Amino acid sequence: MTIKFKLNPLAAGAIALLCGVAGPTQVLAQDSSAATTPPAVVITGSRIPRAGTEGPTAVTVITADDITKQGFRNVFDALTNQTQNSGFVQGADYGNTFTPSANAISLRGLGPNHTLVLLNGRRMADFPIAYDGTVNFTNLANIPSSVVERIEILSGGASAVYGSDAIAGVVNIILKKKADGYDINVKAGGTSRGGAEDQRVQFTGGKSFDKLTTLFSVELLEREPLWSADRDFMAQKTGVAPTSVLGRKNVSTGKYVDLGDTCSSLSDLYGGSTVKYTAKAGSYCASPKVGPTYWTTQTKNSSQNLFGSANYELSPETTLYAEALFGQNRSTQNTRGPSWTSRSLTDSYFWNQNTNVYEAWNRYISPEEIGGVERYNRYWDDQTSSLSIGARGVIPGTSWNYEAGYTASLYKSQDHRPRALANIDSFFLGPQLGVDKSGVAIYAPDPARLTKRLTPQEFDSITGTAVSNDKSWTNTVSLSANGDAFELPAGPVKLAAVAELGKQGFSNTPDPRINEGYFNVATGSDVTAGTRKRYAAGLEASIPVLKSVNATLAGRYDKYSFAGRDDGKFTYNGGVEWRPAQQLLLRGNYATSFRAPDMNYIFKARGTGYYASTTDYYRCAKAGQPIASCEFANYSPGADYVQTGSKDLRSEKGRSSGLGIVWSPSADFDMSVDYWNIKISDLVTNLSADKLLQDEAACRLKGDLTSPTCADAISRITRYADNALNKPGEIKSILVNPINAATTSVDGIDIAGKYVFRTKEYGNVITKANYSKTLNKHSRQFTGDVLNDDLEDLTNYDWRDKLNASVTWNIGKWSNTVFFQRYGKVPNAAGTAFLTPTTLVNASVVYRLNERTTLSVAVNNLFNQVKTDNSAGWPYYPVGNFSPVGRQGWVELNYHFGG
């Protein structure tokens, strides 16, 4: 059923333009006299159809044309560049992360797990591996852009409509329903600095057969990697000691054993950069190119995506539908090359029977020895699939619409990681000859084995590939209905109801050979898996209070069952729209929201990693050094950690509110200003390692080893013995687990506007601007902690503000767009100051050769800027906030036939 509104042409035109008010919707301006009432559609944030995106909460719309004209490469690229996406995330091109084959966004800087991502209004399976080893999220890397009609972004709590996860907002990726004919699209590009080339081929089409409408799409993509060596500014490390390629140390004295002329014989390694380096502790072979040689700053990707849909008109009142999506992707990257340290699984040194000295040997193996740098690549094979079937139509005997459907989604990822085999110690040191009275392994190694270059065959004998299998899935049955309930003087009250039943699960299965001692890694890599069920029911109402005032109300109850217990939450929201004049809209909203505990936090068996930096308060105190100048403070990389899950976690609670104004004085001009505020309590977070280290230091210094707080802190921090020959007294590992403790709050403003300048001879010029600024952001790790000002925190790499602006000139067969992106300040890598704001410019030209053929040329980062950050050394640019790629260009050809 289509809901009809009586609007005069001016109001109708203003509403149509509001589709672009809060976002960069690319709508070609029409003569205001030809404006018509927009059709009723379901807009993200409500299940009640309405005639545009205006409502109590702003909705940003990105169209398929925007993705092309504004220089976006794919769906993720379009989303990550939106001004509301202010949060710093570790994406596929970040480097050494838990999820190098995935990309996520962080609306309002609240983390990727607080934004709900939907495909056609339906949930997708989470990425199988937890982001940063802790939280679950939706991967945006592999969604095909060829069948995307538009993307809608709702910022703020929406749990009363969609349930869990919608605390920071909702991203709804809406696919095309039909196609008239067929399109072949070919796109290829590269960079002016070299590397990172990519190619894409798409074939999309559809056809109607009487009552049957079909749509399909095939997408093939290839993206080449970008190596650090491809960029001169980070091809080698400068200003610091070069990386050790070969070294032999006397552990008792801490001095290196002189290697004579060995380094000269290995000088051709790492592109001829290996030399003898002399430090205070002696000399060793080293190169400044080791790290950059084995590091990709952009992953290599090869993906194939298929999509198909069908709608069959069973009767005038009922339509059957089916949608299927399948994709496979191989991501390849490299973050560190093969290296060996003697006895790395124990104390990293041995008793040399030939010299009667405790020694530590190390070796970094070069590309020249193994047959090329790609030989040590790590790669992931991912497969995604989803299926949705159901029926929609009109409930017999009523004017109400309904939809009943079933959705299943599966994500599988296989990780192929090169690892040293368990025989690597014996390869370099020979057979172990027992242990001494202290339990230290005894060897009688031949020094020539350490200094002799390897052959590819020898390298193959000491390395292998560990394969882990990870998957996640979700199934949902849903029933929804909407229609007019009854009449009020100002119009009909519209209602929408929804009921859902779902189940989801995941499993992380490491290579079983790890626990069998096949690889030179510590055993104890456990399977992590879990499932949970979800039940939900909700109701929405749109109430015309007066002709100029409309109110919306929504309430929903969600119940989760997991780990032998239940967790239920009721959420609600309300909003009001007041139109004192046809050109002016005032709006406000208030909503509660929640997030069910991340499944990874609940079921995690055992996970390991390391902190970016750590402060050892106990060693600083023992050494009598103040923290500000302590040699054990803020050392990087920090201590290792061991993480376990907790089945007693509660749901996080969120509250959001907003006020806004939309002014549309004509069909050619509109603007909006919105204030938003989001608060989260009972935030799930891991125990603070820094707080544990502070407690441990205080307890040890005062001699309290038995009180509950002290006993717990001390038991969680494992140290090497004070009299250990190697690393005496240093932190070995920190045990952490998640708890409901943290709180955070953030507020800010969004400003958006559009102006269309029309001429008869020179075409139309469309200008748009969107600006988001975070006004305040505060967080607290534990109750009683000092409230942290995150905007002044130099360890918080979120954007403080972002601005997007575009100018599009349409004339005849030409459409020309210039897109500006201004990024506000963020801290430098050293956390000592803020980097200055930066503006990047994209440009595109689209030319219609004829009615069937379109040619496009796009250039991103037109002025070839690469942001510099030397504050913390290599890689000399702000990783994660900016890209080192430089100028990129694409040529795109689209040919349409059969329609």
TrEMBL record:
It is a multi-pass membrane protein. Residues 54-170 form the TonB-dependent receptor plug domain. Keywords: Cell outer membrane, Membrane, Receptor, Signal, TonB box, Transmembrane, Transmembrane beta strand, Transport. Residues 466-862 form the TonB-dependent receptor-like beta-barrel domain. SUPFAM superfamilies: Porins. One of its GO terms (cellular component) is cell outer membrane. Residues 1-29 form the signal peptide. It is found in: Cell outer membrane. It comes from the Bacteria. PANTHER family: PTHR47234, TONB-DEPENDENT RECEPTOR (PTHR47234:SF1). Belongs to the TonB-dependent receptor family. This is TonB-dependent receptor. It comes from Duganella flavida. The lineage of its organism: Bacteria, Pseudomonadati, Pseudomonadota, Betaproteobacteria, Burkholderiales.
